[in-house]
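Researcher: Let's do a round of design. I'm pasting the structure tokens now; please hold your answer until I've finished.
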């Protein structure tokens, strides 16, 4: 159980707490991976964040992040190589207030063809809608991806991007941080918005289609050129 008062923020709890080899008859050694060790792996290896970004999100020092990451990787390596059991739990952390972020609804068979756009950079969901240089657009039918392509925004930004997406037949947008003006423009264009997403773009679209996309409808972004910024008060995406 989490102990109160510790400023190691965890924004997403693991979906599965126990892993065991299917081909082992005897009970192997059980390795315990703490929740904050899991969170560091999620942030750095799954979402592709740097040590500095992970430290900022968890409200700890980079030294702490390095220690947690090193220990977590050792435990996962033992689990894979030795065929042990891996259990997730325990540790000293504080659950972020946004940890119960919304999930999308699954796309059912028989639903009409649609186009989903994701703010895109190097395979990941780009975190600042108004400054995205590319979208990855997915054509979907019956809950399955038919095709995808990467399109350039040609220097357009903020409110103009809503018209750009509307002209491309986009009905759904998945992104990270987004400002109020862009939200309004997207709403006027009739584009359904799923902000606060992060990680691999392809994986997030698959999660959306399965009704498992983790997003936060209240995510905002105050990004401006040449200045420090944070998306939302606590940068939990």
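Researcher: That's everything. Go ahead.
Model: Designed sequence:
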């Amino acid at each position: 159980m989490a102990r109160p008062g510790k400023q190691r923020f965890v924004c997403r709890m693991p979906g599965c707490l126990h892993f065991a080899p299917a081909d082992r008859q005897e009970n192997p050694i059980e390795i315990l991976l703490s929740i904050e060790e899991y969170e560091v792996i999620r942030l750095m290896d799954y979402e592709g964040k740097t040590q500095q970004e992970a430290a900022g999100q968890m409200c700890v020092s980079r030294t702490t992040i390095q220690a947690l990451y090193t220990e977590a990787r050792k435990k996962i390596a033992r689990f894979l190589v030795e065929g042990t059991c891996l259990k997730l739990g325990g540790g000293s952390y504080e659950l972020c207030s946004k940890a119960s972020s919304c999930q999308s609804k699954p796309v059912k068979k028989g639903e009409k063809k649609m186009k989903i756009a994701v703010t895109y950079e190097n395979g990941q969901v780009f975190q600042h809608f108004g400054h995205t240089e590319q979208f990855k657009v997915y054509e979907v039918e019956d809950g399955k991806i038919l095709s995808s392509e990467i399109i350039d925004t040609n220097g357009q930004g903020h409110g103009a991007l809503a018209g750009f997406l509307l002209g491309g037949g986009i009905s759904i947008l998945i992104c990270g941080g987004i400002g109020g003006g862009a939200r309004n423009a997207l709403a006027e264009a009739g584009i359904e918005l799923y902000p606060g997403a992060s990680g691999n773009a392809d994986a997030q679209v698959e999660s959306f289609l399965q009704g498992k996309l983790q997003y936060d409808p209240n995510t905002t972004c105050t990004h401006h050129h040449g200045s420090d910024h944070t998306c939302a008060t606590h940068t939990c995406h």
